[in-house]
Amino acid sequence: MKCLNTPSLFLALFVAVAFSMTYVPAIAEESDLPDELEGYALTGETENCLRSSRIRDSRPLDDHHILFEMRNGDSYLNRLSDGCNGIASNVFVFDSAAGRVCENQIIKVVDETHFIARGACGLGEFEKLEEAES
Fold it and tell me: Which residues pair with residue 46 across a beta bridge?
C-alpha cells in the first residue's frame, strides 16, 4: 500500500473539490431589472468593451444599472460591479481616450449642479438587450 505525503494528499483533495464544483454565473432575474427595461429582453450575450465612438447615449437607470444605446440601434445593459450610490441622481463620466469603455473601468460620479465629485464605481460586463416580443 502506497502512502501519499501531506502535500500530495492536499493537492488530490483540492483537485477533487475543484472538479466537483460547478460555476454558475449570477443571472439577474427579470424582476430585479429597472422598469425602464420593460420593453427589452436579456440575450445573455456579453461584451467586455464597447467602442466609445459607437455609443449614442448612456444613462443610469438606478444605482446598479446603466443603459448604453448604440448608434446602430443596439442596446447594452451594464450591471455595475458593486453598485454605485447616487449615480441615478447625478451624472457620470468615463475616460474614453483609449476609444473604448470596458468592464472594470472606473467611472466618476459628479454632481452636475456644483461639479463636485461624488464618488467612483467600476463597470461590469455589457449585456446585449433585444426588444421583447409582444
Answer: 127
Element (H, E) at 67: strand 65-70
Q: Which residue has the cell 451594464?
A: 78
CA pseudo-torsion sign 127, 72, 50, 66: negative
From the CB of residue 35, how many other CB atoms can be counted at a distance below 10 Å? 7
Question: How many CB atoms are located within 10 Å of the residue 78 CB?
Answer: 23
Whole-angstrom distance, CA of residue 71 vs CA of residue 94: 18
Written as nine digits, the cell of 42 is 436579456
**Domains in the chain: boundaries:** 29-131
Cell (9 digits) for 117: 465629485
pLDDT in tens, 33-83: 788 888 899 999 999 999 999 999 999 999 999 999 999 999 999 999 888
